[in-house]
Amino acid sequence: MDVKAVTGDQLVEKLDSLGMKNSRPGSEGSYDYVDEQGDSMSTPVESSLSVQTTEQWERQLMKDPKNRLALSTLAKHGSNALIQRSAQIKDTQNYNVKIAFEGGPITNQRSSGRCWLFAATNVFRVAIMKKYNLKEFELSQSYLFYYDKLEKSNWFLEQILDTLDEPLDGRLIQTLLADPVGDGGQWDMVANLVEKYGIIPQQHYPDTWNAQNSSDMRRLITSKLREDALELRRLAKEAKDARASLGSVKDKMMKEIHLILTVTLGPPPSPTSEFTWEFYDKEDKFGSLTTTPTDFAAELSSKASVASDSGCDVHRVFSLVNDPRNDYGKLLSVSRLGNVVGMRGVRYVNVNMKTMKEACISMLQANFPIFFGSDVGKYSNTQSGIMDVDLFDFELGFNVRLGMNKAQRLMAGESAMTHAMVLTAVHLDKDGQPVRWRVQNSWGETAGTKGWFVMSDKWMDEFVYQAVVDPKFVSEEIQDVLKQEPKMWGFPFFPGLTYLKTDINRRLEPWDPMGALA
């Protein structure tokens, strides 16, 4: 079959005439290339790519003035040249539902992957700021960061001891070795840290350079843990009972990790030792509090804090997720994902986006901030702080249509939770449906509108995967899913490892995209 070259515009016209519409993120459509007779192109698959073919493609491409303009523009301005003015105009920082107190200042995680700790502490601080009438306040993200690295190292070594019979080159061990102590985390993991170690004002454990620029420290600890993993596996082959005989070896390994963390981040306050926090409130009145990190954390669920937060106990909140690959109304867990041995693993209640958004709107109407996880790098612009599936017109620049839906992006490894932020407002239309959402980020005031981002509702549908909500803002049916206790199996010496083994629930593999750490 003879196939004539067609320009991008002619191709679009032909596709439209055949009812093949543009497939932006979220649409279910797809398209085929067609010849001028309207038949689908079908030619034998060539195993190699010839120079002659690519040269022919280039000649055809450069004949089109639209492509020459795209080359000139994109070479100088990159994808920013494809930003649509219409999206910039409609995505404003105006909302008709907004929590009364958002908390401040805008935080900055700098060159680290601590977004989940910043998002969580930005949620926690609201209750504290209300109670003590504060204008600005930050909890120490570095304090939780220190203990998370320490606990993740211990978790990793326990995983290695628990998988001694697995092949070293198998997918499971290679997944464990890939990123044993990454900066990221999940809500259940920060809940573990707060319960065990408490929280502390930032002034009592401020960032070091290594907290703000964590890559060197992370690489060093990762190299050491990988070396330790190989050593544990080697020694286990020589031991009759690996767990009974390798305790001192593991302790030595953990002591070395502790040394690295302490030298790079500084010695942290003891969770049970008293400190005195001094502050000025909004009226410039001096105040002080003597407490311990664990007692300070306990205040988040005290009667006074709960009352000031209109009855919300931050320790009761849980994760709703939207994973269209799996059945809704089910409890999901990710195998071997966690940080503190002996405490809760990572669990999600899988719901549709309508349920998630209704819970979020109810939370905001009741004046509660919301921790959420998303794929922030998709269809977003850091400078403007806009997240909108209509922000970039890639078809205009490349004659390329991206048509995968949310489930397909997860299956193909195209998308996952990469960043955690906080919702503080939503704009509803006359029918009460969400139009756009206000987002508190942790990239400093130079990003977005003085640190604030705006998320279109369509972007939320496609790239938001998680929202942490209070049970009272969801239906009894969803609450019943949350009450389901996963069945435990495996080794009694590793109680922190939670597996789901029921027909009504789903245990995801360690490499599943829903196991990505924000």
Automatic annotation (TrEMBL):
Q: Tell whether Membrane is among the UniProt keywords.
A: no
Q: Which InterPro entries match?
A: Papain-like_cys_pep_sf, Pept_cys_AS, Peptidase_C1B
**GO CC terms:** cytoplasm
Q: Where is the active site?
A: C115, H419, N441
Q: What Pfam families does the record point to?
A: Peptidase_C1_2
GO BP field: homocysteine catabolic process; proteolysis; response to toxic substance
Coiled-coil annotated spans: 222-252
UniProt entry keywords in alphabetical sequence: Coiled coil, Hydrolase, Protease, Thiol protease
- Region annotation (Disordered) ranges: 16-47
User: Superkingdom of the source?
Assistant: Eukaryota
Q: Which reaction does it catalyse?
A: Inactivates bleomycin B2 (a cytotoxic glycometallopeptide) by hydrolysis of a carboxyamide bond of beta-aminoalanine, but also shows general aminopeptidase activity. The specificity varies somewhat with source, but amino acid arylamides of Met, Leu and Ala are preferred
Select a single GO molecular function from the record's annotations and give it: cysteine-type aminopeptidase activity
**E.C. no:** 3.4.22.40
Q: How does it assemble?
A: Homohexamer. Binds to nucleic acids. Binds single-stranded DNA and RNA with higher affinity than double-stranded DNA.
* Function according to Swiss-Prot or TrEMBL: The normal physiological role of the enzyme is unknown, but it is not essential for the viability of yeast cells. Has aminopeptidase activity, shortening substrate peptides sequentially by 1 amino acid. Has bleomycin hydrolase activity, which can protect the cell from the toxic effects of bleomycin. Has homocysteine-thiolactonase activity, protecting the cell against homocysteine toxicity. Acts as a repressor in the GAL4 regulatory system, but this does not require either the peptidase or nucleic acid-binding activities.
List the PANTHER family hit by this protein, alphabetically: BLEOMYCIN HYDROLASE
Q: What is this protein called?
A: Cysteine proteinase 1, mitochondrial
Please tell me the species this chain comes from. Ramalina farinacea
